[in-house]
Specification:
Helix content is 59%, strand content 14%. With 192 residues, the protein is an alpha/beta fold. The protein has a 5-stranded parallel beta sheet with strand order 2-3-1-4-5, sandwiched between helices. Helix 6 (119-133) crosses helix 7 (141-164). The longest helix is centred in the last third of the chain and has 24 residues, at 141-164. It is globular. The protein binds adenosine monophosphate. Adenosine monophosphate is lined by residues 32-33, 36, 53-54, 58-60, 65, 86-87, 89, 93. Its main location: cytoplasm. Keywords: ATP-binding, Cytoplasm, Kinase, Nucleotide biosynthesis, Nucleotide-binding, Transferase.
């Protein structure tokens, strides 16, 4: 079993590469943001609660997020591991994830893969995407720069913890999609 924490700022190609990893290694992706959006769309109690935080740009309380994550991890799957996306976001969540993975799967996080792309390239990519995606947060350069800044502020302490454990690996996220995928595969093969 292989458990990966995947990091990447908006525009880094994280979604594309997550898809490659899922297929290559038969993994299940757990994205806390997607799970919240699913609950909001289906108007569940969890969705209503989460929405009140998400709409204000705040983090959903840890206990709510962690309970949802545990439920998802407990679902039967034939996947051979997990990609965690959007979790952990804080030092507290990093430690929580370690004990959850231990309790539920009797396993560990193997690696934290971080896609690195220069800010100027991210801005250009997102502005380009904004022309066709219809996402208003991709159309405004100031909003884009703010999202990138936020990302670094939030992930710094998580990255530090994985660095201390020797599990943090940065991958250059600029280049051909297939080349970047190969680099990710190589790092995963090392810890498999
Ligand atoms: P994302 O799609 O990962 O950007 O997440 C969208 C929103 O969901 C965030 O802005 C938070 O409000 C909430 N959220 C996602 N993941 C977490 C998490 N690990 N802890 C708390 N809130 C989260």
């Amino acid at each position: 079993m292989i458990n990966i924490v995947l990091f990447g700022p908006p525009g880094s190609g994280k979604g594309t590469q997550a898809q490659n990893l899922i297929e290559k290694f038969n993994l299940k992706q757990i994205s806390t943001g997607d799970l919240f959006r699913f609950n909001i769309k289906n108007e569940t109690a969890l969705g209503t609660l989460a929405k009140s935080f998400i709409d204000k740009g705040q983090l959903v309380p840890d206990q709510v997020t962690i309970d949802m994550l545990i439920d998802e991890l407990k679902k039967p799957t034939d996947a051979q591991g997990f990609i965690f996306d959007g979790f952990p976001r804080t030092a507290f969540q990093t430690e929580a994830l370690e004990s959850i993975v231990k309790d539920v799967l009797n396993d560990d996080i193997d690696i934290c893969l971080s896609l690195v792309v220069e800010d100027e390239i991210l801005v250009q990519r997102l502005l380009e995407r904004g022309k066709t995606s219809g996402r208003t947060d991709d159309a405004d350069e100031n909003i884009i720069r703010n999202r990138i800044k936020e990302y670094y502020a939030k992930t710094a302490e998580v990255a530090e913890l994985y660095k201390k454990q020797g599990k943090y690996v940065e991958i250059n996220g600029v280049g051909e999609i297939s080349e970047i995928a190969e680099k990710l595969y190589t790092e995963i093969e090392k810890v498999k």
